[in-house]
């Protein structure tokens, strides 16, 4: 949907919520794709625990980062996890700059990319 690889979406969901639609993180992210309220509203999400709404909003959200970073999945994942401001402030321009990101983001991107690559 929205031109986003379904395997990427599934990998994000697995890592974010382990397919539990009712999970809430300590930071307040909600649902399958662990969306924050301020992100959810931009995509018309009214119930973050509704599976269809959450996936629809989450796919639009990752798509916005894929568009921002010209289809670069690694940069899009960094932004999805830490925010595009963090990517920009830390001078990250490619996967080679992953070390500049917080450890949580480094782990996040590495795990999802391994899953996408079948490792």
């Amino acid at each position: 949907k929205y031109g986003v690889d379904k395997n990427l979406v599934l990998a994000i969901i697995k890592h974010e919520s382990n397919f539990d639609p009712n999970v809430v993180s300590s930071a307040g992210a909600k649902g399958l794709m662990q969306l924050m309220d301020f992100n959810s509203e931009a995509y018309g999400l009214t119930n973050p625990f509704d599976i269809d709404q959450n996936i629809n909003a989450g796919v639009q959200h990752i798509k916005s980062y894929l568009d921002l970073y010209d289809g670069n999945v690694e940069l899009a994942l960094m932004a999805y996890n830490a925010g595009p401001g963090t990517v920009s402030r830390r001078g990250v321009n490619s996967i080679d700059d992953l070390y500049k990101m917080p450890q949580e983001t480094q782990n996040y991107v590495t795990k999802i990319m391994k899953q996408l690559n079948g490792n």
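The two ends are 25 Å apart (CA to CA). Residues 55 and 65 are 15 Å apart (CA to CA).
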